[in-house]
Amino acid sequence: MKTWALFKLKCNISFRRHLLNLLLLFFSPSKRFIIALSQNLDKHIVLYQKELNSLYSKQHNSKSVKEIAA
């Protein structure tokens, strides 16, 4: 993913987290739409972490020419 997509995903996570925290002040956590919002937030967090992991592994798992030749 590009950095713009990661930024957009991070903004979506932040928005959903703040919305969930605000709604939890007024509604019970067992309400159906609160549960749906929480699951949606979890889905976005998993996508964000997968992309961060793939970026990290691409940067740190590449072997140098000396390691390959040895």
Q: Quote the distance from N terminus to C terminus.
A: 33 Å
Write down the secondary-structure element order: HHH
Enumerate the spans where pLDDT stays under 50 for 5 or more consecutive residues: none
SS class:
mainly alpha
Largest sheet properties: none
**How many β-strand runs?**
0
Question: How many alpha or pi helices?
Answer: 3
Taken as a percent bin, the fraction of beta residues is under 5%
Organism: Clostridium chromiireducens
Protein name: Spo0E family sporulation regulatory protein-aspartic acid phosphatase
Explain the overall architecture.
This protein has one domain. Helix content is 83%, strand content 0%. With 70 residues, it is mostly helical. It has 3 helices and no strands. The chain is elongated and about 65 Å long. α1 packs antiparallel against α2 (32-60).
What is the topological layout?
Elements (H helix, E strand, L loop, with lengths): L2 H24 L5 H29 L4 H5 L1
Helix pairs in contact: 1-2
Overview in brief:
With 70 residues, this protein is an all-alpha fold. It has three helices and no strands.
Question: Which structural traits does this protein have?
Answer:
0% strand; elongated; 70 residues; mainly alpha
